[in-house]
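seq:
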Amino acid sequence: MNILEMHDIHKSFNDLDVLKGIDLTVSQGEVVAVIGPSGGGKSTLLRCATTLERIDSGKIVIGGDVLCDTRDEKLHYCDKKMLAEIRSKFGLVFQNFNLFPHFSVRRNITEALIHVHKKSKAEADEICNSLLEKMELTAKAEEYPCNLSGGQQQRVSIARALATNPEIIFFDEPTSALDPELTKGVLNVIKELAAEKMTMVIVTHEMSFARDVADRIVFMDGGVIVEEGPAYELVTNPKAERTKAFLAGY
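struct:
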């Protein structure tokens, strides 16, 4: 079963074509890493998939529900009720954490559970406690983000994304704001999720991580998918000249 389907996705900003007919599918339990140079369209693709940007044309299906579709040369997005349903199916982890600075770690994780997903406080706390244990952050439950390291903040962000039991999690350069030592801890958490068969799309510049953890790698440049294939094979034996040139820098 495909959890994500993106067909013929086009997106422009003013006169700049950022996505030029992208086709991408992600099946249940699959980990897909998206790599490529800055400005190649990776983050825009993620933002379109997670409703942070509206596409210009194409079709997006998440968890079997149609987010948007182009019919008769007009783009149609789903209604608000369906949009809320679709948004409940995915989690998103940003490169800069995006935690609420005035909320404790616990409240960052439980806020949406209580107010959006209508869980009781006891249910939300139980979910939160389980995730904090998983992230090795139990002792930080009542701390505020400013008192945490970057790596700890990112693990809280991952816990928040997992709290709603999503069908797929999107990561946008989850380690780009971290130093090498903290990066290792966050990547280990993502490796554990991959081992648990969590469906994930990860925009990353960590090539060895992508090679070892992803099932498939998609290489983007200039708003198109230049090459995609099994992770280890693509990194060690790329076919396209552009992919070879990009990977030669790593």
